[in-house]
TrEMBL record:
The keyword Metal-binding applies. This is Protein SCO1/2. Signal peptide: none annotated. The lineage of its organism: Bacteria, Pseudomonadati, Bacteroidota, Flavobacteriia, Flavobacteriales. It comes from Ichthyenterobacterium magnum. Pfam families: SCO1-SenC (PF02630). PROSITE patterns: PROKAR_LIPOPROTEIN. The keyword Translocase does not apply. Belongs to the SCO1/2 family. Cu cation binds at C71, C75, H158. Keywords: Copper, Disulfide bond, Metal-binding.
Length: 195
């Protein structure tokens, strides 16, 4: 009986491994002190041509990434992974995905709408957003990432990482969406934040 009780104790401890996710949205000020910040939106619109602002993400848990619709390299496999995550959490109204285009000249709302429709995911679950190039760079800075055009103009250098943001608009993790172990960790962390 003691052996069974010990096994049950170990099993319960293992199943309750929900360590607190760190807050990663912070900067170090001139005094060397940590200052947390929240993710905010201003001057964006989604694939339906609707305004997208900080109010849109209020009380939502979301993952965010940067992409462009003509991307010939990492975007198609990223899109497939994100679609699978959207499907896995399709019944959780508190969870959304936000994809920011880094090519606003080409990626109009109409273009984003067509691209979004190829995912088969409802617009409420996966928002494709656009703004000016300057505003998009400022947004990327909030997510601690950047992008730049390839020398030949056919592609952009950008990250395959996504950021997980909690209901208080604070970043709680970064994940390489092209690495299976990161995707598994991301799903666990989303579930933890939702619960």
């Amino acid at each position: 009986m003691k052996r069974f009780t010990f096994f049950l104790f170990v099993l319960l401890i293992g199943c309750n491994n929900t360590k607190e996710l760190p807050i990663l949205s912070y900067k170090i000020n001139d005094l060397g002190e940590r200052e947390n910040y929240t993710i905010t939106y201003k001057g964006f619109e989604n694939q339906l041509g609707e305004s997208f602002s900080t109010e849109t993400i209020k009380d939502k848990i979301f993952i965010a990434n940067f992409f462009f619709t003509k991307c010939p390299s990492i975007c198609p496999p990223m899109k497939a992974q994100l679609a699978a995550i959207a499907d896995a959490f399709k019944n959780d109204s508190d969870f959304v995905i936000i994809s920011h285009t880094i090519d606003p000249k080409h990626d109009t709302s109409v273009t984003l709408k067509g691209y979004a429709e190829t995912t088969g995911i409802k617009a409420q679950k996966w928002q494709f957003v656009r703004s000016s190039e300057e505003n998009t760079r400022l947004q990327a800075n909030q997510f601690m990432t950047n992008f730049k055009p390839n020398e030949d103009g056919t592609d952009f250098y950008h990250s395959s990482y996504v950021a997980l943001v909690d209901k208080n608009q604070m970043i709680r993790g970064f994940y390489n969406i092209l690495a299976n172990e990161d995707v598994a960790r991301l799903k666990r962390d989303i579930s933890n934040l939702l619960s």
